[in-house]
Recover the amino acids of this structure.
């Protein structure tokens, strides 16, 4: 089985690229989606209540309140990550095992914004990075209604610059290009990864 990591700074088209890989049959593990599901679970709510009592409304987590807290206090963010990340890691390992049992020659992908920062790239056979110009990135961010400039700066400070990610990656995709061109690049990369998968000794 081949494990591919997909990463990219905020608003660089990572989600679009992930969908393209998914449409081509690649099984995707999305860290953000799994983390959100974990946070929404009743057991997690009870646990978080001990440390973030102010975010609980009618025994449910108010995600907007949680976001505001962790984006203003780095220590609170680290505390949240210490709770959630180990659970995400368990889900990721189960994802690997499940797909390995179903098809040991399959290609799976970790869609993870902090792939390098969290050291998850070490679990991958190949890494793909999405990137775009700063102008395009800023334009995309401004189109997001749920993100302020201060929140953007906070997020960017925690992420490696795109230039550094590109240096560390096996493949990079410039999403300044059209959707059609990006799709062709995804197909090209997947073909190369598939060929390496066929050559790999299992």
């Amino acid at each position: 089985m081949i494990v591919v990591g997909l990463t990219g700074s905020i608003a660089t088209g990572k989600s679009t690229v992930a969908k393209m890989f998914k449409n081509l049959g690649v099984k995707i593990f999305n860290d953000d989606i799994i983390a959100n599901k974990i946070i929404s679970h009743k057991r997690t709510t009870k646990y978080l209540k001990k440390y973030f009592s102010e975010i609980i409304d009618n025994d449910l987590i108010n995600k907007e309140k949680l976001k505001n807290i962790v984006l203003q206090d780095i220590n609170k963010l680290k505390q949240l990550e210490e709770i959630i990340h180990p659970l995400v890691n368990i889900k990721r390992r189960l994802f690997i095992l499940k797909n390995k049992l179903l098809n040991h020659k399959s290609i799976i992908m970790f869609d993870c914004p902090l792939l390098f920062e969290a050291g998850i790239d070490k679990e991958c056979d190949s890494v793909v990075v999405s990137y775009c110009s700063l102008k395009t990135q800023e334009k995309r961010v401004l189109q997001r209604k749920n993100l302020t400039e201060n929140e953007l700066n906070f997020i960017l400070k925690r992420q490696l610059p795109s230039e550094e990610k590109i240096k560390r990656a096996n493949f990079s995709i410039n999403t300044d290009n059209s959707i059609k061109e990006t799709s062709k690049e995804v197909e090209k990369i997947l073909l190369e990864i598939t060929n390496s998968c066929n050559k790999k000794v299992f």
In short: Residues 2-196 form a domain with the Rossmann fold fold (CATH 3.40.50.300). Strands lie at 2-7, 27-30, 56-57, 60-61, 107-111, 126-131, 171-174. Residues 74-102 form the longest helix (29 residues).
